[in-house]
Amino acid sequence: MSAKPPTPPAEIRALTEARLTFGRRGSAVDTAGALAFALDHARARAAVEAELDLPTLAAALDRMGLAHRVVTSAAGDRSGFIRRPDLGRRLREDGAATLAGLGPVDVALVLGDGLSATAVALNGAAFVADLAARLDRMCLRLSPVILARQARVALGDKIALALQATTVVMALGERPGLSAADSLGVYITHLPRPDTADSGRNCISNIREAGLPVTEAAGQAAQLIAAMRASGQSGVALSRALASGALPPARP
Amino acid sequence: MPYRIDLNATRYSFPSLKVLLARASPERSGDALAGLAADGPLRRIAAQHVLADVPLSDFLSDVMEVDGDGVTALIAGQHDRTAFAPVAALTVGGFRDWLLDPATTGADIAGLAWGLTPEMVAAVSKIMRAQDLIAVAAKVEVVTRFRSTLGLKGRLSTRNQPNHPTDDSQGIALSALDGLLMGAGDAVIGVNPATDSLPDYIRICEVLDAIRSQLAIPTQTCCLGHVTTALAAMEAGAPVDLVFQSVAGSDKANAGFGVTLATLDEAAEAVAALGRAPKGANLMYFETGQGAALSADAHHGMDQQTMEARAYAVARRYRPLLVNTVVGFIGPEYLADGKQITRAGLEDHFCGKLLGLPMGVDVCYTNHAWADQDDLDILLTALAAAGVNFVITVPGGDDIMLNYQSLSFHDASYIRRTLGKPPAPEFAEWIAANGIGTPGVTLPTLDAALGQLRLPAA
C-alpha cells in the first residue's frame, strides 16, 4: 500500500485543478496517483458508453406531469454513434411517425444522451422540468419532452422541424473530461433548419452539481429563448445584439 | 488513367490516383466517415499492390484535382527537380525499398525533402508497416534553433503546455513551474488560450516571458492564439517569440481556420522583424491533424492521411521551429481507437520528417475514443525510437482546459530514463545547473517557486 500523496496547499488548489506534483519528483507517478487517474478515466468511459435510462427518465417526467416520447437517431447504437456523427444528426426512419401530430408548438424540448448519459441521468429531468415551468409562465406552447437516443446536437433541428417548432432546446451530455463526466450542455436554436450552422446556436455548458446549478441554467435558457423570440435570431447574431445593448434584457 | 489489378480471379479497378490513395489507406474511421475507405481488407490490399507499382513521377500531376487550390499550387511550386533526381525513376514500392536500404543514409533522405511532394510521401507510407515508418524516420535528422537547439540525434524535447480553463496567470505559472521542475519545456512553453482576446493573448505572452527571463531558461514561449491575434499583439509590442497557427491541406480547410497563405506570410515577416532571436533562427510553430480537412468539409474526396501530408507543404514554407500533429485530439470519428491513433502518429511523424519538417507529436486521446494510457505509452515509446523531435507534456497527463489526455511530465521522464534521451543541450545544462533531476538536491516547492516569480499584473 503506497502512502497517500501529499495534500496541495489550499491556496494552490484555489488557483488550479491541474494534476500538479506535490511529492517527490523524478520517479513515476505513485500507485495511488496512477489508480486515481485510472478511476477518473473509467468514470469518463462509463459515461460515454452509457445508454439513456428510459424507464427511470419516464418515471421522473411522469411525476413532474410532463408528457414524453422516445426517438432514436440513425446511428442506432453507441459504437455507430461515436464513429458516425453524421448519423447521430439524423432521425431514424420511424421518428416521423413518433412525432406526427404533436405539433405545431413554440418550443421543442429535447433531452438527448450525447456523449454522457450519466449527465442526463443526474440532471436532465430536473433541467427540463424547471425550464418547462418557466416557459409555461411565458405562455409558450411546448412539445412533450422528446427523449433522444444516440443524439448529436443537430438532431434537435430535425425533431423541431417534425414538430413545426420555432425554437428548439437540445439538452445533452457533454464529452466527459477527466475531472467531470456529468456535465450537461444545452443548445438553443431559433428557426432551426436542416443545415443550421453551429454559429446559429446559443450554448449553456457545464451544468452539474459542481458547476452551473440546474435552476440557474434553466433561468438563463428561458432568458435566451425570450430574447430569441423577441428578436427573431439566435447564435452569434443574438449574442452580438445582446452585448451591444441593441436588445433589452428579457425578463421571463 | 485507370489503375487496376487482378487478384484471385477478381478485378479491382481504381478510377484515379486520388481514389487509389484512399482505398490503399490502412483502416481508420475518418475515411469510412467520408465514404472513401476500401470496402474490405481485400480491396485495401489490392489497392496497395497497385499503388506500389505507380511511378513516383505520376504524383507530380494534380492529384487532388481541384482547380485553383492554393495548396496544390504551393506544392507544385515547391517541387525541386534536382533534389528529386535520385528517386525520379522509382515506383512507390521501389521508393520504399530504397528508403529501407541500409546503404541509404539519413543525409540521402534529407537531401530529397524538396524533391518530394506530400502525395509521394503519403503514398509510400501507406505500404509501410510501423517498423518501416520508425526505421526510416530514425535515420533523418531535422535540426531547428532558437534559444535551444532542437532535433539533434539521440535527444528528445518537450513542449511544456500549462493550459488553464480561465487563462489565470498564476494557474498557468504553477503548471509551467511543475513541468520545469521535472525538466519539461525545452522545445517551448506554450499555452492554448481559453479565449482569443487580444488583451489575454498579450498577458499570456508576458506571463510566459516573465517565467523564461526571470529563470533564465534557454527555451522559447508561445501563446497559441490565432495568427491574426498574434499580428495584433506584435503590433502592440507583446513579447512574441513564436507565431503559432493550425494549418491544413487545402485552401478551403485553411479558410475554416480563418487563415490564408498571405496572412501567414505577413506573420512570418512580422515575427522575424521583432529581432528576439539570433539570426537564422526558426520562428514559426504549426499544428496539424488527420481529419482537420474532413471536419471542415474541405477534403475534396481525398483521404485524411494524404490531406494531412499536404498540410506539411504549408508548414515547410515557413521554416518552422516546431510542427506537431495533434494525432488523438480530433476525435474517434477520424481515428477511432489506440491502434488507429498509433498508426497515424507514426505516419504523420514519418511524412513530416521526409518533407523536412522538425516533427513533433501530441501523443493524446479524448475520452470518447477507444484508447487509454497504455496506448499513449506505446506510441511515445515508438516515436522516441523513431527520433521524434518533441512531444507535448501537461501536469499529470490531464489538460484541464482542452479536456483531453496528453503525456505527463512523468511520461517524459520515463522515456528519458528508459531510452536515454536527453533534452536540447542548452536546456540540459540549465536543468543540471539548477539541480533538476540531480539526486540529493532539494528543489523548491511549487508555492515557493511561484512566490519567487514576479508576474505581470492581471
TrEMBL record, chain A:
HAMAP family: EutC. It is found in: Bacterial microcompartment. The keyword Lyase applies. It comes from Roseicyclus mahoneyensis. Its cofactor is adenosylcob(III)alamin. Gene3D superfamilies: Ethanolamine ammonia-lyase light chain (EutC) (3.40.50.11240), Ethanolamine ammonia-lyase light chain (EutC), N-terminal domain (1.10.30.40). Pathway: Amine and polyamine degradation; ethanolamine degradation. Keywords: Bacterial microcompartment, Cobalamin, Cobalt, Lyase. GO terms for cellular component: ethanolamine ammonia-lyase complex; ethanolamine degradation polyhedral organelle. One of its GO terms (molecular function) is cobalamin binding. Belongs to the EutC family. The keyword Lyase applies. The basic unit is a heterodimer which dimerizes to form tetramers. The heterotetramers trimerize; 6 large subunits form a core ring with 6 small subunits projecting outwards. It catalyses: ethanolamine = acetaldehyde + NH4(+). It is an enzyme of class 4 (lyase). This is Ethanolamine ammonia-lyase small subunit. Catalyzes the deamination of various vicinal amino-alcohols to oxo compounds. Allows this organism to utilize ethanolamine as the sole source of nitrogen and carbon in the presence of external vitamin B12. Binds between the large and small subunits. Adenosylcob(III)alamin binds at residues 153, 174, 203. Its EC number is 4.3.1.7. GO terms for biological process: amino acid metabolic process; ethanolamine catabolic process. The gene is eutC.
From TrEMBL, chain B:
It comes from the Bacteria. It is found in: Bacterial microcompartment. InterPro entries: Aldolase_TIM (IPR013785), EutB (IPR010628), EutB_dom_2_sf (IPR044939), EutB_N_sf (IPR044941). It catalyses: ethanolamine = acetaldehyde + NH4(+). Pfam families: EutB (PF06751). GO terms for cellular component: cytosol; ethanolamine ammonia-lyase complex; ethanolamine degradation polyhedral organelle. Gene3D superfamilies: Aldolase class I, ethanolamine ammonia-lyase heavy chain domain like, lyase. Coiled coil: none annotated. Binds between the large and small subunits. Adenosylcob(III)alamin binds at residues 193, 245, 295, 401. One of its GO terms (biological process) is ethanolamine catabolic process. Its EC number is 4.3.1.7. Substrate binds at residues 159-161, 192, 287, 362. Pathway: Amine and polyamine degradation; ethanolamine degradation. The basic unit is a heterodimer which dimerizes to form tetramers. The heterotetramers trimerize; 6 large subunits form a core ring with 6 small subunits projecting outwards. Catalyzes the deamination of various vicinal amino-alcohols to oxo compounds. Allows this organism to utilize ethanolamine as the sole source of nitrogen and carbon in the presence of vitamin B12. Belongs to the EutB family. This is Ethanolamine ammonia-lyase large subunit. It comes from Roseicyclus mahoneyensis. The lineage of its organism: Bacteria, Pseudomonadati, Pseudomonadota, Alphaproteobacteria, Rhodobacterales. The gene is eutB.
